[in-house]
Amino acid sequence: MLTAENLGATFGNIIIASGSLLLLLFLLKKFAWKNIVEIFEKRAQKIAADIDEAKKANLNAQKLEQERQKQLANSQEEATTILKTAREAGERSRQNILVDAKEEIGKLKEKAQVDIEQKRKEALIEVKEEVADLSLQIAAKILNKELTKENHKTLIDSFIGKLGESYETR
Fold it and tell me: CB of 134 within 8 A of CB of 162?
């Protein structure tokens, strides 16, 4: 129960507590309030600076990503250019090889034609020599014999036979 004595003690405690609180607030304001405010302001500035640094780091990362993308695109273009150049060089090389092969074939054909012509000339000379020999033999026989129609026919058949034999022996 509340009695006047208890009520007076409680009221006295409230006054002392209120005075102590006011004294504490006054002392805090007088001596510590500036430091507390400075700490909070420094903390707010540090947070703002950290946010600014994070934004700068993010922008820097974006720039680096863009540069990397550009370098990648340049690398791809360079690779495409190198491949194109290699293909062109390969095609030129193939064309050169074909031209060289055609020239070589042409030279071989010319050589073969020259060889064929030479062999033909040699064969003609050889045939002429044989015909000349046979003609001389026939002339010798004619001079040694008197020619009758029958002798003439026998002589021509003999000539044709010898000509065929010499042609077959080649």
Answer: yes
Are 143 and 164 contacting, i.e. CB atoms less than 8 angstroms apart? Answer: no
Residue-wise pLDDT tens digits, 75-121: 999 999 999 999 999 999 999 998 988 899 999 899 989 998 898 88
Is 3 a member of any domain?
no
Q: Which domain holds residue 80?
A: 12-168
Q: Which of 143, 128, 124, 135 is nearest to 160 (CA)?
A: 135
Return the structure tokens found at 132: 């000349």
Q: Domain tally for the chain?
A: 1
Chain position carrying tokens 């430091």: 35
Whether residue 70 lies inside any domain: the answer is yes
In a domain, 127, yes or no: yes
Q: Please report, as a single letter, which amino acid is at residue 42.
A: K
